[in-house]
Amino acid sequence: MKRRRKLRWILPAAVLLAVLVLVGAAVARRTPTVRVAEVRQPLPGEQQTELSASGYVDSRRRSVIAPLIAGQLVEVTVEEGEAVRQGQVIARLDDRDARVVFDRAQAAVRSSEAQLAATEAQAVNAERTTQRTRNLARQGVIPRAQLQDVETAGRATQETLNQARAQLAVARRASEAARLQLAHTVVRAPFDGTVSKKLANEGAVLAPAALTGTNLGGIVELVDLHALEVEAEVSEEQLSRIHPGQPALIFLDALPERAFPGTATTVRPAIDRSKATATVLVRFQSVPQGALPDMGAKVSFLRQPLPPEALDAHGQPPRVPASAVVRDAEGSAVWVVRDGRLVRQPVLVGERVGDELSLKQGPGAGTQVVVAPDPKRMHDGRRVKVESGGG
After folding, report:
1. Are 81 and 190 in a shared domain?
2. How many CB atoms lie within 10 A of CB 40?
3. Residue 150's pLDDT is what?
4. Closest Cα partner for 346 from 322, 328, 366, 323?
5. 3-state SS assignment for residue 87
6. Residue 88 belongs to a domain with what CATH number?
7. 183, 213, 245 — which closes off a domain?
8. Which of 55, 82, 235, 246 is most buried, judging by how many CB atoms fall within 10 Å of its CB?
9. Residue 346, Cβ neighbours under 10 Å: how many?
């Protein structure tokens, strides 16, 4: 009886123990989730940075080039990416109507000049006649009334001469206007620059005052690549920390490995209501090769200028969060996540900078390492999941 009672307790206990062993094994095999951060390369001037802002590259001279008159485009002489000089011909409009108007105006000038010459000759003759008549009248050869008639005719001739001179002036002004209209059929570059966009092709009918349409009257967009600057957006509460002439570092998204010195030049006196930001213009000290308008950029406004040797980001060791470095009997190390598995990698740490440690030896920038690793869950080769939003 006692034996049966004993077996009755042993069997459930064995089953429970087996279940606990199976659950423990399943828990042990479960893939843990870890939080990661990337080993990063510190940016130049971090310790001297007053504040940072994002923006875009633009040019102080950037224009859509359009004709001053309406007309049909018959030739575009430049292509996108081509460098042009000030005064270089960019395009030509159909000039047939303008040329007819100019020729007519020139003919009117010649006609007015001939009319003026004839009137001047008549005026000279009238003046001589008036002088002779006055002499004869003084001698009593002719009556006074005849002298009055001759003087009246002379004054009329002088008025005709004045009219001829005025008509010639009007004809010359009209000719000048026609000449300008003809000149406007040739579109020239207003400054040295590079064609960034071609907006119209031969056959397009352009109107400079157009408010609709695909090209808005433009032929090309011209950009001066030697006058680039960054338009950085700074929140309004931070504006008091920016002043003209303040040194800055510019980081281009397209050239992430380099820092370019710059200077804050202007704070635009307007606030964007929707974003509560103001635009600060930051000029390159020397425009870098490869920089283009509309490139993304980040700007670090500095407390003081940096020496040239401090601009090299590769001159500083990479950094990791201090919580990622573990110290045990084997020394200092970090747990690297590589292809979804843990790899223990020894490191040689340098100075502490804020919440980070510099690495004299260890993984390179961009490597994912586990933050605040749990020693009980860290094993070489163990598969892990990266926490969503980590790194």
Report:
1. yes
2. 14
3. 81
4. 328
5. coil
6. 2.40.50.100
7. 183
8. 55
9. 11
What was the pLDDT predicted at 129? 85
Both 79 and 127 in a single domain?
Answer: no
CATH code, domain carrying 269: 2.40.30.170
Q: Choose between 248 and 28: higher pLDDT.
A: 248
CA dihedral 317→319→323→324, nearest 10 degrees, is -90
Same domain, 176 and 108: yes
Structure tokens at 49: 């940075």
- Tell me: do 196 and 179 sit in the same domain: no
Query: What total number of domains does the chain contain?
Result: 3
Quick check: is 159 in a domain?
Answer: yes
Question: Is the Cβ–Cβ distance between 57 and 292 less than 8 Å?
Answer: yes
- pLDDT of res. 389: 55
- The whole-model pTM stands at 0.64
Residue 339 region, left (φ>0) first, then alpha (ψ -120 to 50), else beta?
left
Alpha helices in the chain (DSSP H): 2-29, 96-139, 144-183
Does residue 279 sit within a domain? yes
Secondary structure of the chain: what % helix, strand, coil (to 5)? 35, 35, 30
| Closest alpha carbon to 250 in 302, 297, 191 | 297
Dist. CA 65–CA 321, nearest whole Å: 52
